Amino acid sequence: MIDAGDLQDTRRQLAQSCEEAGIEFKYAKDEPSTTRQRNAGARIASGSVLFFLDDDVEIAEDYISRLMSLYEKDTEGRIGGITGVPEPAPAPESGFWKWYQRFFLLAETRAGARPGMKRSHFPVHGTGFVGVDRCEIMPSTAVSYRAQVFQEFEFDGNLGGYVMAEDLDLAWRVSRVHELWTDAGAVYRHKKSEVSRNSRRETEKRRILFTQYFFRKNMGGSVTCWLARWWALLGMSVRYAYLAVRRRDSQLLLGFRDGIVAAARNKLLLPGRFVPGRLEH
Questions:
Q1: DSSP character for 241?
Q2: Collapsed DSSP state (helix, strand, coil) of residue 71
Q3: Per mean pLDDT, which range of 20-34, 56-70, 85-99, 108-122 is the poorest?
Q4: 8 Å CB contact between 142 and 159
Q5: What pLDDT sits at residue 30?
Q6: E-only strand ranges, the chain
Q7: What gap in Å lies between CA 79 and CA 49, rounded to an integer?
Q8: What is the pLDDT of residues 72-121, one digit of tens each?
Q9: What is the phi-psi region of residue 220: left when phi exceeds 0, alpha when psi lies from -120 to 50, beta otherwise?
């Protein structure tokens, strides 16, 4: 349990429940931050493999054993992390918007694609494949890493509060050095809840700000990548403007604008010297 507030009663209740169930209970304090709290939990965890599971995820009974068997077969230690696949699988984009997102290098779900990053640093999520295959990004919904590999990279601890895309940032950095794999036979169900979630405007603002930060950190030294990123942001703005008129709902467009303003305030929109640090939201 990583306590970022004042959860003494909850701590006592959890400790008692774990004791009754024969589960070892560990406790630590840390700052309110998605990334820092996960890092803190990983530092006090034991074992050679770390599993990160969202609290609204159900994994299949054989999920952990399937992934562990792949680690055990990797006697050379080449594999840095492994994940499974959601069930039901997300539907790939189709029609006009499929080609629009590809043209503007935006995030997309593509049938049969290997999960990875575009030059714009927006992701391609694969779906519909079978067996075990390489990947270079892994959502943290139900993901695992070798403890030694995770300790080398960790989630970006510079970021506070509710962070977005930190899982893709970590996986992409790990994939530059170690192999990442997806096992299509290891399935989980993601039961997303709308409770306690930010508004669509705030969510989109954070998406733009954090993905721009990770782009700046990981790919900001390439002119080609900068052109790809600006092109993608242009395509995103046009799409949100269209949706605002079509649906008479400007929340996504306003969130995009807020994110661009926040990115500009943090000097993330233009090339130049970059030092990773805490963001001003």
A1: H
A2: helix
A3: 20-34
A4: no
A5: 80
A6: 2-3, 28-29, 49-53, 57-59, 79-86, 108-111, 116-117, 123-127, 132-135, 142-146, 179-190
A7: 11
A8: 999 999 999 999 999 988 888 889 999 999 999 999 999 888 999 999 99
A9: alpha
Length, in residues, of the chain? 281
Tokens 């500009």 belong to residue: 264
Are 42 and 151 spatial neighbours (Cβ–Cβ below 8 Å)? yes
CA atoms within 13 A on the CB side of 82: 25
Is 26:44 a contact under the CB 8 Å cutoff?
yes
* Structure confidence by residue, pLDDT tens digits, 181-234: 999 999 999 887 766 567 999 999 999 999 999 999 998 788 999 999 999 999
What pLDDT, on a 0 to 100 scale, did the predictor assign at position 90? Answer: 87
79: phi then psi, degrees, rounded to nearest 5: -80, 125
Per-residue b or e along 195-215, where b marks 16 or more CB atoms closer than 10 Å to that residue's CB:
eeeeeebbbbbbbbbbbbbbb
pTM score, whole prediction: 0.91
Reading the block at residue 214, the tokens are 């990770």
Under 8 Å between Cβ of 266 and 209: yes
Ramachandran angles phi, psi of 227, nearest 5°: -60, -40
**Residue type, position 114, single letter:** R
Rounded-to-integer distance, Cα 18 and Cα 3, Å:
16
In whole angstroms, give the CA distance from residue 92 to residue 109. Answer: 5
Task: Please answer whether residues 38 and 55 qualify as being in contact, where contact means their C-beta atoms are separated by less than 8 angstroms.
Answer: no
Query: What is the DSSP secondary structure assignment for residue 199, as one 8-state letter?
Result: P
pLDDT digits (tens, 9 = 90+) for 242-259: 999 999 999 999 999 999
The rounded distance, in Å, linking the Cα atoms of 236 and 260 is 11
CA–CA separation, 40 and 118 (whole Å):
31
Q: Residue 50: which of 146, 133, 130 has the closest Cα?
A: 146
